[in-house]
Amino acid sequence: MGLLFRIVAMVALLASLAARADDEPTGILRVEASQPGARVYLDRVEIGAAPIVRYVPVGPHLVRVVADGFDPYVRKVTVAADQTAAVEARLVPGGGTVEFQVDAPKATLILDGRERWPLPVRLRDLPPGEHAWRIEAPGHEPVEGSFEFVPGHNLLFVETLPSSAGIVVVTTRPPGASVWLDGEPAGSTPLRLEGVAPGAHALRVEAEGYATVFRAFDNTDGQRVELPIRLNRRGAALVVKTGREDAELRVDGARVATGARVRLPAVARGTHRFEVVAPGAAPASGRFTIPDGGRLVLQAALDAEDSALVEVPPPWERWTFWAAAGAVAAGGAAGGVLAWRASRPTPVPEGDVVVNLP
Fold first, then answer.
1. Residue 178 and residue 290: Cα distance in Å, rounded?
2. Which end of the chain is more exposed for a tag (fewer CB within 10 A), N or C?
3. In this predicted model, what pLDDT tens digit does every residue of 182-239 receive, in sequence order?
4. Pair (155, 177) in one structural domain
5. Is residue 195 part of a domain?
């Protein structure tokens, strides 16, 4: 073996010497194994069969030597500039292993949908045959696959988990709804968006025959955002009186429409932040709840320094309505007057009230 090893070493040295960069400090890594032909991995990448000699960058490295019927041999080695680091792998007979390594912290391996292990992990004594695996980690998309385990064989899986940052998944029942993200068309459901900038965002979801749905979300933490939405045929009409054709209505920060009077025939119930903006005027905003039926009417009073957005109550909640009704019923029984007083929702303003009767 001595002559063969020297020949292999010389060839490897000449090849790596020709490939190495002049400005990168390197050292020599020499790996021998008790089982000639064992596969050698350097930092998770297979580089050849033992015995092997390579120029490698200076610094710490992970050497892995494997052969069927033997347990893997794994060692950390530090290579110094212009020096040789030698690894002599004494392989021990074994029944086969499966190793999983990932680049994501706090990753978990799920094998066959049941057993779980924190990664990295080396599994032994697995039942022969097909196995399914899945790897999950906070802030990353899961990866999955399968393998066939043969006793005595050694398998290595080195996986890279994509980041979940910027991923937003929108699903609706029924599917096929149109989605707007921050006021811009984004597609139809089921919808997967990638590259969504971190921060606060707003969705508008519409489908013919169903109430419009607004959803606000924040993906600053880098996690994947999933928004399952069940569309409802019931909803309340939304009317926003801006008073200006160039005024814009925003719901939860998303642009909805422009005009002096904005009307959406059906909006799903929920509490949202409404805002009316117009050139030269201070924004008028507030949080209001859309009921499950009827309608919500908002009135904007735009001013250069102090704007306001208020809810306009229905006619039967206004004191003028009840004042007129009370005047009409003045000739009725006293019980009718008492009923009017008990049912009015807001008090009559102080002072004289003038009501013009027909």
1. 21
2. C
3. 999 999 999 999 999 999 999 999 999 999 999 999 999 999 999 999 999 999 999 9
4. no
5. yes
Whole-structure pTM value: 0.68
Q: 273, exposed or middle or buried, with CB in 10 Å at 0-12, 13-18, 19+?
A: middle
DSSP bridge pairs for 251: 254, 274
CA atoms of 98 and 264, how far apart (whole Å): 58
Q: In Å, how far are 182, 233, 319 from 211, measured between CA atoms? A: 19, 6, 32
CATH number of the domain enclosing 291: 2.60.40
Q: Edge to edge, what strands does the sheet with 45-49 contain?
A: 45-49, 39-42, 59-66, 73-79
Q: What is the residue type of 343?
A: S
Report DSSP letters for 90-126, one per residue. ---B-S-EEEEEESSTT-EEEETTTEEEESSEEEESP
- Residue that finishes a domain, picked among 178, 204, 230: 230
Same domain, 278 and 334: no
Q: Give domain status of residue 95, yes or no.
A: no
